[in-house]
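Loading example: each entry is read as two labelled lines plus one structure line.
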Amino acid sequence: MIELGELEKQHVEFTKRGVRVIVVSNDPVEMATMNQADFPHLIVVSDADQSMAKALGMIHPGAGEHRDDTNAPTILFVDGDGTVRDMAQPLRIINRLSPADVLATADKLWGAPQ
Amino acid sequence: MDSALPSNESTPERTQRSSNVFRRMPSLVLLAGALCFVVGPALYFWQLKQKVLVTPWYIPGLSTLGAVTMVGMLYVRPNVWRGILCAGSVVLCGLEWYGLGVGVSTPVYHGPVRVGSAVPAFSTQLSSGLEFTNQDLTSAASTILVFFRGRW
């Protein structure tokens, strides 16, 4: 859970910017509940049936642990009115934006905190 | 023109010296080649410990170095076992390049999300069991929505 842990560490910076971080996986509720306990400053979504991932087209077919569908790693930056302002998908599934890059993008979109 | 002469004269000597390394210390050369295949994954393990999620191109890079060493070894001192080892190292090296270059690629996005447009309608649930829909993205501050996978 490197990605979530690194985002969790930056929670003060996200709060300063008035930005909330919502993390979505296709884990069942039990696993999502454990993740929520481990990362209390993130909002954990349990998209077990992948209804959200399918609606947004964030599916990586056949790439799950048991060759089932899983999420394509993606970060969406969404305005308070629900408009997508930016979208970041790594070229490779083993890559992620660093928290510094996420914060830099947030600052570019919504301004740095005073 | 004169300055090129000593260099030309020393070339066969250098070649002789380098191939001598392969002849005199075959085990050491083999070990060095094999180490190249081990160091890459070890470095990646360390990279993950540092919580850095970038592509470890050094793994196939080091393996290429290892495979070249094995091929050089086979060229200078050929035998069946070195041939098998050499073939295995070349195959492994190729698999590593393919794996990082193609195997772990994120699929090209063809979904409905567009920058500048509203998030498409969806309905799912939070870890608490409460419903979570696209409407929840319109009633608060800005949101960073992270689709994640894996356990690392």
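Chain A has a mean pLDDT of 91.
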